[in-house]
Design brief:
Blueprint: E1 2-7, H1 14-26, E2 28-33, H2 36-43, H3 51-61, E3 66-69, H4 77-82, E4 86-89, H5 101-104, E5 108-110, H6 116-119, H7 121-127
Parallel strand pairs: 1-2, 1-4, 2-3, 4-5
Length: 130
């Protein structure tokens, strides 16, 4: 089964590792790492690590996973290219503006949180004053 994940994966942490482990239990995983410009457009801030650093962190820690950079303008391009059997989303992950799960034309499963009081990226940034 082909599994597709999307995310920023800024400052890779145990919550990210949980998502990857859960995905790997379900099949062959491709991770779409968000482009810096898209992160800024959607989240209103640039990621702390650039897109290549974030992609490299996944490749280094999970060599069995295929990590690719997202498309700079077409959020659905990776879905068409990979043709996954399942898309996994984090418990609090939002789709890009203007997209719905129906637009994906693929079954979508939302994962349970993994210690969100400790590993939610926005909390980690706030507690470090970053």
């Amino acid at each position: 089964m082909k599994i597709l994940l999307f995310g920023t994966f800024d400052r890779f942490h145990p919550g990210h590792a949980y998502v990857l482990r859960e995905a790997m239990k379900r099949g062959d995983v491709t991770v779409v790492v968000a482009r810096d410009a898209n992160v800024e457009r959607i989240k209103g801030r640039r990621p702390r690590q650039d897109e290549r650093e974030r992609k490299a962190a996944i490749e280094e820690q999970y060599p069995a996973v295929t990590a690719i950079l997202g498309d700079a303008t077409d959020y659905l391009a990776p879905v068409r290219a990979v043709q996954p059997d399942l898309i996994l989303l984090g418990y609090d992950q939002q789709l890009p503006p203007g997209l719905t799960e129906a637009d994906l034309n693929v079954p979508v499963e939302r994962l349970f949180p993994h210690e969100p009081h400790k590993y939610k990226s926005s909390l980690r940034s706030a507690t470090r004053g970053e």
